[in-house]
Amino acid sequence: MYDDQTNCLELTVYDHDVAGKDDFMGRTTIDLSNIKHEKTHTLEQILEDGAGTITLLLTISGTSGSETITDLTNFTPNPRERDEIVCSYGLLKSFHNLKDVGWLQVKVYKAQGLQAADIGGKSDPFCVVELVNARLQTQTEYKNLNPQWNKIFTFNVKDIHSVLEVTVFDEDRDKKVEFLGKVCIPLLKIKPGERKWYALKDKKLMRKTKGSILLEMDLIFNHIKAGIRTINPKEDKFMQPEQKFKISIMKRNINRVSQIVSSFVDTGKFIQSCFDHESKPRSITAFIVYIMVVWNFELYMLPVTLLLIL
């Protein structure tokens, strides 16, 4: 966003036509001047002429300069403010606004030793912080492998079993992004006030990648609200990456099914061999086991046996 831009965001919906021209389906506008910064808003906009509705997540983030609320260089902690937040999530407030489970504050200080994504051996890194559908990001630090963002982000916690995702990207000139590293932190693993370096990992979180990031988090939540939320369905995440078809995954799944089928076949052959008297000791043992089961079997044993297998 730039100062000389209009504050109206226009969204247009088309029907994609492979052979010819895309067909216009509807349009809507959003006044950005009324949108609060550094917060993810879920909006449902009605398209013109009753052409339907469109649901979207909209966030204005990465602001810098005079934004003292989000800029660590101008931030002064207020213990009284935190005490008020603790009080608002106390036991006496357990049945007030059940969807508001807790409050999370994330301080993104800096990163070091990032991967060089540009030809000159540098990167233009920025950091994206996500909690389910809430998504905020820092400003971009250009030509830097050790960026200092110094940002504070605040999230409303709806499910204490959610996972905080912190991802570092490289910004290119054409506004495309390149993945540099990621870390995922379950909310229940957060130690309030602990400033810690986290090693960045790849997209699948299987291996370490170059670089680490310095974070400090503070979490306050109501245990009763969190318990009530636990028995409800998990919140759907709108921004899910598209799953790409991979031959290796398909082969692995086919092998799994083949192994299961072969194990059933082998079990059937073994049981059949007991009745065919291919091996006298095996048939005698099977007969004794059969007699013992019939003699001692009670109906309640069936679910108990299935429970033991589970």
UniProtKB/TrEMBL annotation:
It holds the Pfam family C2. Residues 1-45, 79-202 form the C2 domain. The chain crosses the membrane at residues 287-309. One of its GO terms (molecular function) is calcium ion binding. GO terms for cellular component: synaptic vesicle membrane. Keywords: Calcium, Membrane, Metal-binding, Transmembrane, Transmembrane helix. The keyword Metal-binding applies. One of its GO terms (biological process) is regulation of neurotransmitter secretion. The keyword NAD does not apply. This is Multiple C2 and transmembrane domain-containing protein,Multiple C2 and transmembrane domain-containing protein 2,Multiple C2 and transmembrane domain-containing protein 1.
